[in-house]
Design brief:
alpha+beta; three-stranded mixed β-sheet; three-stranded antiparallel β-sheet
Length: about 280
């Protein structure tokens, strides 16, 4: 199919009709999600070039200006008569990220939220949550699931999110029995879940037809590494490390960043704003 680069990347003309080009649309969604998640324009350009995603018939090399034009193009939200590829919230989040990368706000909050952003996932579907923050209203912070099939939106201030994480960590310090994790859970449950996730990801790639041998190999190796991490001996080390870290900790009214990084893999955010910690021993508490 000929690529009309007089049209924005992500669209083409077929039988005289303007339509979405599926493989390019998938690349656009990833660009917005990754940029909102902290990736730089240069990093995104390098990734697109490495994956050999064609920008036009004669060009597969990308630069940061090409990526920036995509991030700033409102047509992807359905403006000017174009079919939408992303929703307005993701567009706003990505473009607000430009300001946030130029000027950092409140060093302590930014450091804490930066840690949370890298680990916060949707409890409903397990996908990454993206933070939408408007400077004119610091209390109005929304977390949006990046999964198009989920798209849960949750309003919770940075301060309340941090408070709930601290409360959860203090609960574990007060109740060390919560850390007990049966071997059958570790080996069978988390292992089968990982196999299922890897199979699903491979299935989606094969169904779309938009993949390279390198991408398939990356998914397979990533799945194998995660399966290794879930082996009994490896997880046994994680169980011991988490237990020791909490046994040596004292309750605090502020986030113990070192303890959090030692013991937690993810923060699970529920639709009602409640949270659970997914610890490195495989437990959700």
């Amino acid at each position: 199919m000929k690529k009309h680069r007089s049209l924005p990347f992500g669209y083409t003309i077929t039988d005289g009709r303007l339509i979405i080009e599926p493989s390019e649309a998938e690349a656009i969604r990833k660009i917005f999600a990754d940029y909102a998640g902290g990736a730089s324009l240069s990093e995104l350009a390098a990734t697109l070039t490495k994956l050999q995603i064609p920008y036009s018939e004669k060009r597969t090399d990308w630069n940061k200006n090409m990526v920036a034009r995509i991030i700033g193009n409102r047509k992807y939200t359905g403006a000017d008569g174009f079919d939408p590829i992303i929703d307005l919230d993701i567009f706003k989040e990505a473009n607000l990220s430009k300001d946030q990368k130029i000027k950092k706000q409140h060093c302590h909050d930014n450091t804490t939220i930066g840690i949370f952003r890298a680990r916060l996932i949707c409890k409903a579907c397990g996908s990454r949550m993206i933070r939408l923050y408007e400077k004119r209203n610091r209390e109005q912070v929304r977390w949006i699931c990046e999964n198009p099939a989920c798209r849960i939106r949750i309003c919770i201030s940075d301060e309340l999110l941090e408070c709930r994480v601290v409360d959860r960590m203090n609960l574990i310090i007060d109740n060390p029995d919560l850390l007990e994790c049966p071997d059958c859970y570790l080996i069978e449950d988390s292992g089968s879940i990982q196999r299922s996730r890897t199979a699903q990801e491979l299935g989606r790639m094969c169904d779309s037809g938009n993949y390279s041998d390198e991408q398939l190999l990356d998914v397979i190796l990533s799945g194998a590494q995660k399966r290794y991490d879930q082996c009994p001996q490896v997880q046994g080390n994680a169980i011991t490390g988490v237990s020791i870290a909490f046994s040596e900790a004292e309750k605090s009214e502020e986030l113990d960043t070192e303890l959090f990084l030692k013991t937690a893999n993810h923060i699970l955010l529920d639709a009602d704003g409640s949270i659970q910690l997914r610890l490195k021993n495989g437990k959700d508490i």
